[in-house]
Amino acid sequence: MNDRLAMYNANALKLGLFGANCSSGRAATKVPERWSASWPDCLALARMADQAGIDFMLPIGRWKGYGGDTDMHGESLETLTWATGLLAATERITVFGTVHAPLFHPLIAAKQCVTADQVGRGRFGLNIVAGWNEGEFEMFGVQQREHEARYEYAQDWIDAIKLAWGPQDDFVFDGAHIKLAKVRAKPKPYGGTRPLIMNAGSTPTGQAFAMRNCDAFFTATQESRKGGVEATKTMIAGIKEQARALGRDIEVFTVGQVVCRPTQQEAEDYYRHAIIDNADWGSVDGMLAIKAITPQTVGAEEYKKKREYFASRAIGGYPFVGTPDRIAQEFADLSRGGMRGIAFSMVNYLDELPLFRDEVLPRLERMGVRKKG
Ligand SMILES: Cc1cc2nc3c(=O)[nH]c(=O)nc-3n(C[C@H](O)[C@H](O)[C@H](O)COP(=O)(O)O)c2cc1C
Questions:
Q1: N or C: the chain end with fewer CB closer than 10 Å?
Q2: How many A from CA of 34 to the centre of ligand 1?
Q3: Sign (positive/negative) of CA torsion 13, 250, 128, 291?
C-alpha cells in the first residue's frame, strides 16, 4: 500500500493533471485553444506526462455540460474507461477514475476498478463522489438523497467495494442501504493490495467520510495560502489530527490552475485574457444556478462578486500564475507546509505542459521536493 501511496516514486510533492477528460478542463473560457478533451489529445497528454514524470491524472466525473457559448464539460470521457485506456498506454503514471457512488452499482464499479488496476499493474486510484449536481441525477432518473444520507449511502458503497476487493468470497453484505448476497468478485486488485482511494468533500460530513475511508483528501481551500507555509502547516496538521483520532493516516492534496510563462507579465496577461476577458459567463452562470446562486437568490451586487470569484478561482482552484521561478516557489512552499500533492489544470494542457516540464520540474528537483527522472 505504501508503494501505491508513493505512486512508486520518491517525490515528496506529487504532481497531477486535473480535469483533462472534460471539454474546457477547469477553465470556463471561450479562447479557441481551450481544451478539447478528445481521446487523441488525452492520450498524447498522458504519454507526455508519463515521460515527464508527472505522478497522476485525476479526471472529473461529469455527465452534463454547464451551457453558455462553449457548454463547458459538455463533452466528457467516462472516467473508468478513460483511465483504463490511459493505463494501457503508459508505464509509470497513476490514473484515477472518479465515480459517483449513487450512479454505479458497487460490484460493477469494484470490478471496473480491478480491471483498470490490472491493466495498470497497480497504478489505478479511485475518487469517490457522493454527488452535488442535481441536474445530473435527474437525467439518470435517480433521486438525489439529502446531504447526510448521501454520505451514509457512500459509506455502504465503499464498504462493499473494499469487501469485494478483499480476500473473502461468497460473502453477504447487509448495509443500511445496500444488500448483497453470496458475492463473488474475482480477480482481486493487482499485487494483493487495493487501489488508492481519495475524496474531496468540503462539508464537515464530506470531510469526515474522507477521514474514515480514504488515503488522500483533496482540499480546494484557498484561505491557508494567504498565511504562507505556517498557515498551510496548521491546516494540514488539523486534518491529519482528525484522521489520527480515528486511527487513520491521511495525505492532504490541493488543486489549482497553472498559467506559466517565461515572464510574469506574459503569464498575468494570458491569465486575464483567457479567464477574465474571454470568460464564458454563460457556463459560469450555469454552474452557479446548479448551486442555487442567481441574482434573484443572492441579489445583483453579491451575484456579480460570486460570478467573478467563480470564474477566477472556484472553478479552476487557486491560480498559480507566473514565471517558472514563481510557480516552483509556490509549489515548494506548499510542499514544505506538508501538502502531499497538487492536482492542477491548464487552459491547454498539451501546449502548456512542455514549459512546465522543462522549467518548473527541474527547479522543484533543485529545491529538494522532487527527485530527478
Ligand atoms: C479535487 C476535487 C475533485 C472533485 N471531483 C468531482 C467530480 O469529479 N465530480 C463531482 O461531481 N464532484 C467532484 N468534486 C466535488 C466533491 O466531491 C464534493 O461533492 C464537493 O466538494 C462538495 O462537498 P460535500 O460533498 O462535502 O458537500 C470534486 C472536488 C474537488 C475539490
A1: C
A2: 22
A3: negative
